[in-house]
Amino acid sequence: PAGVCPQNAMVQAEIVDVHNAFRRAVQPSASDMLIMSYSEEVAASAQAWVDQCTLDHGAPSTRLLNYHLGENLFYSSSLKSWTDVINAWHSEVERYNYPTGSTNGKSIGHYTQQVIWNSSYKVGCGATLCPNNIYYYGCHYYRGNFRRWAPYTPGSPCGSCPNNCVDKLCNPCPYIDHYINCPILKNTTGCSNELVKAWCPASCTCTTEIIPIGRL
């Protein structure tokens, strides 16, 4: 149906708006939360996975662009709006405590992946009707959920990006670091090194924007 088809521009706007509303509302507030936008390339990856009707996460190799994407999945015996689906992922907030994680050992990955990970700033989604009338939804994201890393920096909204702020969310650096330790490599080896320059374009190029993926 057109109301849930991710190729529909209004559906894409719904997906982005619901995510960003939750990102603005994190507690404690985030100083470096990036504004999320829709990616057709990421969406193609998500659609390819849900079309297989495997009601479980795939191997990381099934969601690989320049690096592994994060993944949230949802299925239901009845048609749901994307707002309902994203709300279901967000509901894990009830058992999440910043920054330590789950309060009861149950899953919080859907929530941290798509709502409060500051660098998960691109989303793309797919939906399909599987056998036995199962509606299957999936979204892929520029990845978050790095172990031993806090999902964002607490502080006043946009405190870390005062010159790159839109409605309490930060505009991201348009480049992507391929390694989480790029800020360290920039300081220790330097961007004059060709390998550092190639693998850490965000750290080497952006000085005022929030850098996606890896951060100190």
UniProtKB/TrEMBL annotation:
Keywords: Disulfide bond. Gene3D superfamilies: CAP, Crisp domain. The keyword Translocase does not apply. Transmembrane segments: none annotated. The keyword Metal-binding does not apply. Residues 173-206 form the ShKT domain. Disulfide bonds join C182-C200, C191-C204. Pfam families: CAP (PF00188), Crisp (PF08562). InterPro entries: CAP_dom, CAP_sf, Crisp-like_dom, CRISP-related, Cysteine_rich_secretory, ShKT_dom. This is ShKT domain-containing protein. It comes from Pundamilia nyererei.
